[in-house]
Specification:
Layout: E1 7-9, E2 12-14, H1 19-26, E3 29-30, H2 33-43, H3 48-51, E4 55-59, H4 61-69, E5 75-80, H5 91-104, E6 108-112, H6 114-120, H7 126-142, E7 150-154, H8 159-172, H9 175-182, H10 190-200, E8 210-215, H11 219-228, E9 238-242, E10 246-247, E11 250-254, H12 270-280, H13 289-295, H14 303-312, H15 316-328, H16 333-365
Parallel strand pairs: 5-6, 5-8, 6-7, 8-9
Antiparallel strand pairs: 1-2, 3-4, 4-9, 10-11
Helix pairs in contact: 6-7, 7-16, 8-10, 10-11, 12-16, 14-16
This protein binds tryptophan (TRP).
Length: 369
C-alpha cells in the first residue's frame, strides 16, 4: 500500500509513490478530465499518456493553452542527465514532447546536463558524461525530431549561451532556499548548489512562455525557477509531469540508468531484453500455475503489464484484454512477459536503426553559440 513513506527528489526516488499525496506535497495541480478534453480539442487527438494518467499533474498548462488560443505561442523544453545509456523510461516524456511539438508547431530545446551528472556521481568523469550526452542525443533524435525546430544544448559546450541567463537566475536564488528544497549539506559540492540555475536557463532562452514535459522528480528545480521568474521579469515556466517509470524489480523503485539489471537500455540486444524481462521483471502472478489459474494475477503491480500500459501497447482494447486475462488467470506470467518481450524488441529494432542514422545528423541539432 502506498503511504507517506516515499521520497521524490531529482537525485533520489524511494518507496511506493502515492501520486495523489505527491500532488499535495509539491503543490501541483491534477490533470483533470476537463483539462484533457481541452487538450484534445486543440490537438484533435486523445493521447494515451493523458488518458492513462501517465501524465498526471501540471503547473499552469491551462495558461499555456489559453494564451495559445489567443494567438500567443510557446516553446517546449525538456532534458536528460547523461549518467549512462538511455533507458526506455526516458523515452516517455520525449515521445510526448514530439507529439506536442507536432500538434502545436513549436520549437523544442533538449538539455543534456553532463555537468550535473559529473557533480552528482562519484564515479563519472566529465569526459564520460559528455560521451553519454552524445549517445543520449541519438535516442532523442531517433524519435523523429527535425533540426529546423529542435535544438540540443550540452551544458559544458553551450555555456556561452547558458551563463548570462544562469547568472540572472543565480542572483535570485539564496542558499537557504535551495538547501531547503534539496536537503543540501555543508559537504555538498558547490557545483550542485549552483546547478538549478543552469537547468533553469533554457526556460528563458526564447522570449516566449515555456512548457516543460518532465518526470515529476524534476519538479523541485522548476519550483525554484517559478519563484524567481517574476523577479527577473520573465514568465513562469509551465510544467506537465509524468509518473516515475518503475524499475524491473517493481513498484517502489525508479528505473535508474545506473543499475544494469534494473533497466532496459535502448541499446540492448533482443537476447538481453528477453533475459532481463524473464529474469528480473517483477511479477504480479501467483507462485505456481495452478494457483495462478485459480486466483489470477495482479496487473497493477506487475512490471510487464505496467510497461505495456506506459509505453508498449497503445491500443486500449488490446491492453484491456491483457489486463482482464491476467487478472482472471487466463494469461500466465510467462505469456505476459513474452508479449512484452516481443513488443520491446519490435520497437527497439526500428529505434536502433534510426539511432544509428541519427549519428550523421547529430551536428545539425547541436546548438551553435
Ligand atoms: N536533471 C535532469 C535529469 O537528471 C535533466 C534535465 C535538464 C531536465 N533539464 C531538464 C529534465 C528539463 C526535465 C526537464 O534527468
Amino acid at each position: 500500500m502506498p503511504s507517506d513513506d516515499f521520497i521524490v527528489t531529482p537525485w533520489n526516488v524511494e518507496g511506493d509513490i502515492d501520486y495523489e499525496k505527491l500532488i499535495k506535497r509539491f503543490g501541483t495541480e491534477k490533470i483533470t478530465p476537463e483539462l484533457i478534453s481541452k487538450i484534445d480539442k486543440f490537438t484533435n487527438e486523445s493521447h494515451y499518456m493523458l488518458r492513462r494518467g501517465i501524465f498526471f499533474s501540471h503547473r499552469e498548462f491551462n495558461r499555456i493553452l489559453d494564451d495559445y488560443q489567443k494567438g500567443k505561442k510557446f516553446f517546449l523544453y525538456t532534458g536528460r542527465g547523461p549518467s549512462g545509456h538511455t533507458h526506455i523510461g526516458h523515452l516517455v516524456p520525449w515521445v510526448f514532447c514530439k507529439w506536442l511539438q507536432d500538434k502545436f508547431g513549436v520549437n523544442i530545446y533538449f538539455q543534456l546536463t553532463d555537468d550535473e551528472k559529473f557533480y552528482a556521481k562519484q564515479d563519472l568523469t566529465l569526459e564520460k558524461t559528455y560521451e553519454f550526452a552524445l549517445e543520449n542525443a541519438l535516442d532523442f533524435i531517433a524519435l523523429g525530431f527535425k533540426p529546423e525546430n529542435t535544438k540540443i544544448i550540452i551544458n559544458t559546450k553551450n555555456i556561452k549561451t547558458l551563463y548570462p541567463i544562469a547568472a540572472q537566475v543565480a542572483k535570485k536564488i539564496n542558499f537557504s532556499n535551495t538547501k531547503a528544497v534539496f536537503g543540501f549539506e555543508n559537504e555538498t559540492n558547490v557545483g550542485m548548489i549552483f546547478y538549478t540555475s543552469l537547468q533553469s536557463a533554457p526556460c528563458f532562452i526564447e522570449d516566449l512562455p515555456v512548457l516543460i514535459p518532465l518526470g515529476v522528480d524534476q519538479d523541485p528545480h522548476f519550483r525554484i525557477t517559478r519563484d524567481i521568474a517574476p523577479k527577473i521579469g520573465k514568465p513562469k515556466p509551465a510544467l506537465i509531469h509524468n509518473i516515475m517509470i518503475p524499475a524491473l524489480s517493481g513498484p517502489g523503485s525508479k528505473m535508474s540508468a545506473s543499475s544494469e539489471n534494473e533497466t532496459i537500455y535502448t541499446t540492448d540486444s533482443p537476447e538481453i531484453v528477453k533475459k532481463k524481462i524473464n529474469k528480473y521483471a517483477f511479477s504480479g502472478g501467483q507462485p505456481d500455475i495452478e494457483e495462478h489459474r485459480k486466483k489470477g494475477g495482479n496487473p497493477d503491480i506487475d512490471v510487464s503489464y505496467q510497461y505495456l500500459r506506459i509505453f508498449f501497447e497503445q491500443d486500449d482494447n488490446k491492453l484491456k484484454k491483457i489486463y482482464d486475462d491476467y487478472k482472471s488467470g487466463n494469461l500466465l506470467t510467462g505469456e505476459l512477459k513474452s508479449i512484452l518481450i516481443d513488443k520491446i524488441n519490435e520497437f527497439l529494432k526500428l529505434h536502433q536503426e534510426k539511432r544509428e542514422k541519427a549519428r550523421e545528423h547529430l551536428d545539425k541539432f547541436l546548438l551553435k553559440d
